[in-house]
Structures are given as structure tokens and as C-alpha cells.
Design goal:
Blueprint lengths: L2 E2 L2 H4 L28 H15 L3 H5 L2 E7 L5 H14 L4 E12 L2 E16 L2 E16 L2 E16 L6 E4 L3 E3 L3 E8 L8 E9 L3 H4 L2 E2 L3 E2 L4 E7 L5 E11 L2 E12 L1
Parallel strand pairs: 2-6, 8-15
Antiparallel strand pairs: 1-11, 3-4, 4-5, 5-6, 6-15, 7-9, 9-13, 10-12, 10-14, 14-15
């Protein structure tokens, strides 16, 4: 079955996707509204979107600090590889970032944003439509992006004349060792046609950005996928992904799950 890259991981740009860390940022003031945001913060957010929409990797990386860190394990070099691969597959991605809040942390600015990403890809004669919504937190210092944390992400890829419409149920975070349910429910009534699908749970790391995962599709006995997962014994971030196929329609979904103490 098709190779699949967990798309949440790939959609870096927009405010250059960010990551959630179990460690809180210390000594920050009360969050401020976007209307009161410093001019330099609004400017760099706009520049990041502009560079991403132009798919200009060089301009985008110039907005990063040389000490840029990403808790998925991406540095500037790995990031450039990820973006080159992503934009080759999705040559018309559009990024729109909204500033939700910001706060001062000594000489740094910490911003929370929501980024919407949309685009299409042509692969083996099929058109894939991707949409993603990502809430993230960025730390800026001296007008450079210093650190990234992804708070939540919701990605769907659809292909075919009638891709399944689905509802996804998954907690945003769980405790280490905790069991949880991952449900991807097909909204339409079942027909006589066979539905197949597969669910995947995997730890997030930088290698997964460049190495696709594989699905072995199984015939679905009910109206969707219903899986019980087990959180590992140590804190980490995971991707929960699922693919569902009905007729010539296909839907792929990805969510991020935080596992904390």
C-alpha cells in the first residue's frame, strides 16, 4: 500500500511549526492580545509566511537563529531537507498564520499562533488535497526564531471522487502508561462497497520527516477505525495516523498526541 509521511511533521513553515514541550517557559508575563503585539513580532510572522508561500528556503532559514532548536529534532540543516521534499510533493502550498497571543520573557518574545496550510499534490495520476491546522508556540530573540513547539495539529489528505468524511476522536494529551482510544469514524452510512483502512501510532523524531511509513490496509468490519493505544512509560510526542479507503475515495488523517508525566 502507499507510503505515507505523517503530514503533521511535514508542515513546518507557516510560523515554522512548533512543538509542545513538557517543560514550561519560566518567568513569562501575562499573555497579551494580538492587537498589542510589538511591530517586530508582526513583521517576522509576516516574513515567515511570505517566504513559505514563495517556497524560498534560503529566505526562510535567514529568519531562524543559528541556534534554532525544534523538539522534533530538526535543526536548520534538517529543516531545509524537509522543506525541499515537502515543496517538491506539494508545489502550491499556501500558509496563513494568525497571532493568538504573545508575552515577554526577559529579552525574548513568546508567541502562540494558528497556522492553516492548504495545497494539492499530483502522484501516480491521482490528486491529493491537503489541509492542516496547527497551533504552535514560538520563541523569538533579536528578531530571529529561536525555538519551536507544536501545541496541536490536525491534518487531512483526501483523494478521489468521494473520499470518506470522517470524525476523529483522540485526546490532546495523556499521562505516561495511560491507555487511550483513537477513533476515526466514517460519517456516511455504510453501503455495500467494501471499506478498508489502517491506523498507525508512532513516536515523533526527525527521521520520520524524511522516511515514509507504510500502511497494510485491512477490511473494516464497522463504520471506521477503533483502536486502543498505550502510552509509553516516558514522556514524548506521538503521531496517530489513519487511512480509510471506500471505492476510489481515500482520506488520511494525522493528529499529534502529547504524553506527559
Amino acid at each position: 500500500m502507499p507510503n505515507f509521511k505523517p503530514l503533521s511533521a511535514l508542515f513546518w513553515t507557516s510560523l515554522l511549526l512548533t512543538i509542545i514541550s513538557p517543560v514550561a517557559i519560566p518567568s513569562v508575563a501575562k499573555a497579551e492580545t494580538p492587537e498589542n503585539a510589538p511591530t517586530e513580532l508582526k513583521k517576522i510572522i509576516g516574513e515567515i509566511d511570505t517566504a513559505a508561500n514563495a517556497q524560498n528556503i534560503e529566505s526562510l532559514l535567514k529568519l531562524n537563529s543559528p541556534n534554532f532548536t525544534n523538539s522534533d529534532g530538526l535543526d536548520n540543516k534538517k529543516l531545509s531537507q524537509v522543506l525541499a521534499n515537502l515543496w517538491k510533493e506539494y508545489p502550491n502550498l499556501r500558509y496563513t498564520t494568525q497571532l493568538l497571543s504573545w508575552e515577554k520573557d526577559k529579552d525574548k518574545i513568546v508567541a502562540q499562533t494558528e497556522t492553516k496550510i492548504q495545497g494539492t499534490s499530483q502522484q501516480k495520476g491521482r490528486t491529493f488535497q491537503m489541509s492542516s491546522t496547527i497551533k504552535s508556540r514560538q520563541t523569538f530573540q533579536d528578531n530571529y526564531l529561536l525555538k519551536q513547539e507544536i501545541l496541536t495539529e490536525n491534518t487531512e489528505i483526501k483523494s478521489g471522487n468521494k473520499p470518506p468524511e470522517v470524525e476523529v476522536n483522540l485526546p490532546v494529551q495523556v499521562k505516561v502508561g495511560q491507555q487511550f482510544d483513537f477513533e476515526v469514524i466514517i460519517k456516511e452510512p455504510l453501503t455495500n462497497q467494501i471499506s478498508v483502512g489502517y491506523a498507525l501510532q508512532e513516536k515523533i523524531d526527525s527521521a520520520k520527516y524524511l522516511q515514509p511509513s507504510e500502511f497494510d490496509l485491512e477490511v473494516l468490519q464497522a463504520g471506521g477505525l477503533f483502536k486502543r493505544g498505550q502510552a509509553p512509560s516516558t514522556p514524548e510526542n506521538q503521531w496517530l495516523s489513519a487511512i480509510l479507503v471506500q471505492g476510489d475515495g481515500m482520506t488520511i488523517v494525522t493528529r499529534r498526541l502529547r504524553i506527559e508525566r
